[in-house]
């Protein structure tokens, strides 16, 4: 499938691996894909992101990703469902971090057992990349571009899609921004 990726999409995948390495994560996640998309310049996805989430709003987006990661990646819906069962996620996070340090639930601590030489992709990140292929096919595009990865991130669910939606980056808004850029 990687051979169908445009140069911009390949750059996103490579950038996601670099983000995972820098953070000490053992696997590449959808969050790393989004962070790599945010690094892009002069591509269809970066232009759409700049229009929908201007640079001055990016710190808020990154802070929301960090907050969700601290809660072990639970979405608001997950947190609300647990609250309905009488489970206070905030209290659990506080207790775990009190004992094990800040970010203990983030799952991005270095794993001394990791030795393959390459970061693997989490099941969720693989789903995003597979969905980017389906998005490209549905749009009748011959190659998978970085815009397809962004569109896939908005529909995959989980905290990354939730954070994007909270910042005005939805499938519909990205589709409109990308379609507008293609006709301009």
TrEMBL record:
<protein>
    <submittedName>
        <fullName>Clp protease N-terminal domain-containing protein</fullName>
    </submittedName>
</protein>
<dbReference type="Pfam" id="PF02861">
    <property type="entry name" value="Clp_N"/>
</dbReference>
<dbReference type="InterPro" id="IPR004176">
    <property type="entry name" value="Clp_R_N"/>
</dbReference>
<keyword id="KW-0645">Protease</keyword>
<dbReference type="InterPro" id="IPR036628">
    <property type="entry name" value="Clp_N_dom_sf"/>
</dbReference>
<feature type="domain" description="Clp R">
    <location>
        <begin position="2"/>
        <end position="184"/>
    </location>
</feature>
<dbReference type="GO" id="GO:0008233">
    <property type="term" value="F:peptidase activity"/>
</dbReference>
<dbReference type="GO" id="GO:0006508">
    <property type="term" value="P:proteolysis"/>
</dbReference>
<keyword id="KW-0378">Hydrolase</keyword>
<keyword id="KW-0677">Repeat</keyword>
């Amino acid at each position: 499938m990687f051979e169908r990726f445009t140069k911009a999409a390949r750059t996103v995948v490579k950038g996601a691996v670099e983000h995972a390495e820098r953070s000490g994560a053992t696997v590449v996640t959808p969050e790393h894909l989004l962070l790599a998309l945010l690094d892009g310049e002069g591509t269809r996805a970066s232009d759409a992101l700049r229009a929908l989430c201007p640079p001055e709003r990016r710190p808020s987006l990154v802070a929301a990703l960090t907050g969700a990661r601290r809660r072990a990646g639970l979405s608001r819906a997950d947190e609300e469902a647990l609250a309905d069962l009488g489970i206070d996620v905030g209290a659990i996070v506080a207790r775990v971090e009190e004992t094990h340090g800040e970010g203990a639930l983030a799952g991005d601590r270095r794993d001394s057992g990791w030795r393959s030489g390459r970061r693997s992709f989490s099941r969720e990140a693989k789903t995003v990349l597979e969905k980017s292929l389906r998005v490209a096919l549905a749009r009748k595009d011959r190659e998978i571009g970085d815009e397809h990865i962004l569109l896939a991130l908005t529909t995959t669910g989980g905290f990354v899609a939730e954070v994007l939606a909270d910042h005005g980056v939805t499938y519909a808004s990205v589709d409109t921004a990308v379609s507008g850029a293609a006709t301009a």
